[in-house]
């Protein structure tokens, strides 16, 4: 099993955003302390892959995570979900002991 995965729908969304902004199609996932459950996911476009990053590719789009983040999200899948409540990147994280209703934070 890969350390982390990027779904096809998330890859498509990253490619669209990156093209619109004229930037490389590299999505960085990081985890910061905070949120209602203890840790909070942060997403952003990266200009480059760092030497210690773990990188996976899906349909020409890269997902990168640093070593500290990888320890918290190993085995997770980043997806892009559109629903009546809006559209957002979501992380299906098998390491999360609990999460919050909005899906943007978790605890381990």
Average residue-wise pLDDT: 88
CATH superfamily: HesB-like domain
Q: Can you count the beta strands?
A: 9
Low-confidence stretches: none
For the termini, the CA-CA separation is 21 Å
Count of alpha/pi helices: 2
Please give the CATH architecture.
Answer: Sandwich
Q: Would you state the CATH class?
A: Mainly Beta
CATH topology: Hypothetical Protein Aq_1857, Chain: A
* Most strands sheet: 6 strands, mixed
Instruction: Quickly give the structural class.
Output: alpha+beta
Based on CA atoms alone, the radius of gyration comes out at 13 Å
Order of helices and strands: EHEEEEHEEEE
How many discrete domains? 1
Strand content: over 45%
Q: What portion of residues is helical?
A: 10-25%
Major sheet: order of its strands? Answer: 4-5-2-3-9-8
Q: What form results from the Cα inertia axes? A: globular
